[in-house]
Specification:
By secondary structure, the protein is α+β, with helices and mostly antiparallel strands. The chain is built from four helices and twelve strands; from the N terminus they run E-E-E-H-E-E-E-H-E-E-H-E-E-H-E-E. The protein has a domain of about 100 residues.
């Protein structure tokens, strides 16, 4: 299995047979589920924003029912990372998108369980002061 991480999502997919481990190929549905970007006739779109895909790039980025996701992501100027085993891929956000969010000083929403398993979302506390403490074992 391959794990694909993107802003706010995580998806596990079967690796594409016969593909280089240096390339991430996904179905259009998996790409949409992992990133929120959908393939439309006008290009790769997220909501009202569309990035056109030139004809000369289409043959490199599409093959049958598969999308060269890591190549498409790089073509959009977004960072792509993978671990040495190519079992986990990260499709990052554009610097300008991160910059806009940082300028707003509003944290992205997330939901996590407390020690009793009850789910809490950051958005439940909008307008209130919140102290977030994090810890990691590494």
């Amino acid at each position: 299995m391959i794990r694909v991480l993107s802003a706010g999502s995580q998806l596990e997919v079967e690796p594409s047979p016969g593909r280089s481990p240096d390339e991430l190929w996904l179905s259009p549905a998996a790409l949409a589920e992992a990133t929120g970007w959908q393939l439309r006739p006008e290009g790769l779109c997220q909501g009202d924003v569309c990035a056109p895909i030139p004809e000369d790039a289409r043959e490199k980025l599409f093959e049958g029912d598969a999308v060269y996701a890591s190549g498409l992501w790089q073509r959009m100027g977004r960072p792509v990372l993978r671990d040495a085993a190519a079992s986990t891929w990260m499709l990052g956000e554009a610097a300008e998108d991160r910059g806009r969010r940082l300028a707003s000083l509003e944290a992205p929403d997330f939901t996590l369980p407390d020690i009793e398993g009850k789910l809490h979302s950051l958005s439940d506390f909008r307008g209130k002061k919140v102290f977030l403490a994090t810890w990691a074992s590494w």
